[in-house]
Structure formats: C-alpha cells, structure tokens
Amino acid sequence: MTSYQVNVAGESYACTLMSMAGYDVSIQYGTTQPDWDIQASRKERDLKISVKGSQDGGWGLFQNHLKNADYHAALDSWLLVQPEKIVYLLVQFKDVMIGESPRAYIARPSEIFEHMKTTRAGHAYTSLRENYHYQKGIGAGYKDVIPESWKATQSRIDTI
Distance between CA 12 and CA 60 in Å, rounded? Predict the structure, then answer.
C-alpha cells in the first residue's frame, strides 16, 4: 500500500473496531487531521482518537522532535505537545493478508512515553516498534515489544 492507503485503511479499521466495541463513531474528513482523526462515544464516554497506521512494524511518532541525537529529549518534547485526553489507536498491517484483520493497540500518550523510555535498551528511539530485535549498535541484543496490555480488546477500549 502507499502511505496514503495505509492511513485510509488504518482509520477505516479503527472506525470498524470502535463500532464493534459499541461506540458511535465520527470521523473528520480526510486523513492526517490535526490532533485527532476519529471521535468515539458511548454513553458518557467520549474518546478523541489519533489513528496511526503502519505496514512496516513500527510507527514513527517522535522523529520530528529529535535534536542532537537526544532521544529522551525528543520523547519529552513529543509528550509536551500532546492534546489533552487524546488516545492513540495504532493499526499494524505488516504480514496481514487481504481479508485478515490487522493488529491494533490503544494507548494514552503518557503510556507510550513511559514505554519509549525503555526502548533500545533504555536509550530510546524515534519509532515505536511492535516487535523488533536490535542486531547491532547500543541496543544490540535487546527486543522492543508493544505491551500486551495495549491490545485493543473490549476491556482495554472501555477502560482507557
């Protein structure tokens, strides 16, 4: 898929997932909207969701904040600009065949921030990776894995 198609497919799947979870879904027209992409509501719950799609195993969330190779400062800078109450829904298409459901994770910026501080053997990185083993460099031998608790299940969606 092109990056545009990944964005469209990610947002479409996020809408499907939230609808399946019993939420009413509204979408802003077009992909890559500022702050949030979809709004999901059920009863008194109202979630503003930023959808990030990927087909390569990771989501580049922090690279625009990197200066002087200071990865932890990039994470700090990223967290400071996150809208209040935003939720990230991460959709992964890597190794997913047509007709299969992509893998999906849901997390708050604070959770992503805390996880990213531990990545690459604690040296941090600019890309949140689903399942990546470092072969060389300062992270050699270390494996980054998305926390199991972030899987987009009914319980996770209802309690985030």
Answer: 20
Helix (H, G, I), strand (E, B) or coil at 153: coil
Phi, psi (degrees; rounded to nearest 5) at 66 = -80, 125
Structural domain total, the chain: 1
Owning domain of residue 92: 3-159
Name the burial class of residue 49, with classes exposed (0-12), middle (13-18) and buried (19+) by CB atoms within 10 angstroms of its CB: buried
CATH number at residue 107: 3.40.1350
Q: Tokens for 122? A: 């604690």
CA 23 and chain centroid, separation: 19
Residues in Cβ contact with 10 at an 8 Å cutoff, skipping those fewer than 6 apart: 51, 52, 53, 54, 91, 93, 102
Q: How far is CA 125 from CA 41, 46, 59, 157, in A?
A: 33, 31, 11, 27
Q: What are the pLDDT tens digits along the chain (160 aa)?
A: 999 999 999 999 999 999 999 999 999 876 667 789 999 999 999 999 999 999 999 999 999 999 999 999 999 999 999 998 999 999 999 999 999 999 999 999 999 999 999 999 999 999 999 999 999 999 999 999 999 999 999 999 999 9
